[in-house]
Each structure stands twice: as C-alpha cells, then as structure tokens.
Hints:
The chain is of the alpha+beta class.
Amino acid sequence: xxxxxxxxxxxxxxxxxxxxxxxxxxxxxxxxxxxxxxxxxxxxxxxxxxxxxxxxxxxxxxxxxxxxxxxxxxxxxxxxxxxxxxxxxxxxxxxxxxxxxxxxxxxxxxxxxxxxxxxxxxxxxxxxxxxxxxxxxxxxxxxxxxxxxxxxxxxxxxxxxxxxxxxxxxxxxxxxxxxxxxxxxxxxxxxxxxxxxxxxxxxxxxxxxxxxxxxxxxxxxxxxxxxxxxxxxxxxxxxxxxxxxxxxxxxxxxxxxxxxxxxxxxxxxxxxxxxxxxxxxxxxx
Length: 285
C-alpha cells in the first residue's frame, strides 16, 4: 500500500510540476523551548532569495529548529500517517489542511490562542482548484499567539539566514550534501546520473532523522531537504491571495538538488499529500 501511495505521489508531482484550554493574553511574550529559534526581522540579505530587493521587511518571529516529527504529531493528533515510521523522523503524508488543524490543536493543548479559524462547512471561494474536494475556509487571527505555518517570505528569510545570511545557494551552504537530503544521498548508496524512480526505490531512499545534516546560519536544520515543507501562501500570487495550489518549500529526499535551493518554489493542491511532504511551525514574536 505504501509503495502504491508513493508511486501515485511521484506521478502527481511530475504531472503537476508539484492540556489546558486557557489562553494567554495577546501582549504576553510566548514561552519557547529549545526547539525554536528567534529570527530577528529585517530585509532580505541573501541575493539568491526571490524576495531580495523587493522592499519586503520581515517582522521578528519564532520558527521551529526542526521539521515537525512524528512524535510531535502523534502527541497532538493521536495517529501517525507517515510512510516511513520513526518518532524522530519528520511526519509526512500530511495535507495543508492537516497541518493547519495540527497548529490549532497544538495551540489549544498548550494553552495558546489558535491562529486559524477553520470552517469545514464553507467552501473557500479563493480556492480555484478543481481537484481539491475539501476547500475548507481558513482565515487567520493576526493577534493570536498560537502556532501557525510560516509565510513563504518568512520561510525563505529564515532559510537564507535572515540578517546573518552568508548568501548561500542552499540553506546553510553552497554544497548541497552538507545540509540537504535529496534523491542522490538519501538512500543506501550515493546515486549518480539522471533522476530515476526505479533506481531511487531500489536504493531504499527515505526520510532521515531530523537534524542529521548541518544547520544554516540561524541554527535551523533541514530547510534544504528531508521533506518539502508546507507554507501559508498560495502559489500563484501572494498579492491576489487566491489560486490553485499552496506553496511547498525546501525540497525533499525524493527530489532533484535544484529543489533544495532557498529560492525554489514547489506547489501542490491543499488536499494533496505525499511521502516527502511535511512542515515546520512558527509563532509570532
């Protein structure tokens, strides 16, 4: 069954492109553990970023040091959807809707105000996909202190090193193998030649333990691969705020090395999921 899901996922990718209820007050500083990094705000320093010289200023925010693990997911959601099982492996096989729901449930579990309003009974008119049969209407509570997905700009700012950026092509290095998991190095042997799914499958390529490659300038792991990471934004145009797909960033164990570049933009329907699709969470400062 897992093999079938993975094969179906590969086909879609290459066709498409693609316990407390109390809340703290909005002025109270969030309490963060060692698994989060404070990203000091500012403008983009990395010239390889899509947002460089775009007159965009990022506000200070927190982002998780690691991709959300299967243990973290199970502690909140009570089940494990992943194709590759391990507590310290990143959770995968999760849709954009799944991770939005996770953010709210984790917020409630930790006594925080949920960041998202989720209405499963209303169709989002901004969702133009004919393949998304869910189309939940999701809006945000900007003053909430709960967990959320980073925006695409926040993700890319953090991935490219923020104000500490050294201008790397990948998140933390110009050498992909130092910081990234992708199709050539995520299996039993280091592969060469052209991308080839049968070879990748026979090489036992899969996700790796979070944090098992070098960090970037901010101390963040795996932002250039292990699993691709959902972010908040529509793929088509963040200014229009509607579209067919949601953005995924960072590449994954199954993809080409070009997908691991900080500037790479992937896309998928919000209800889509696959064995190299995961996420990390953020919170506002």
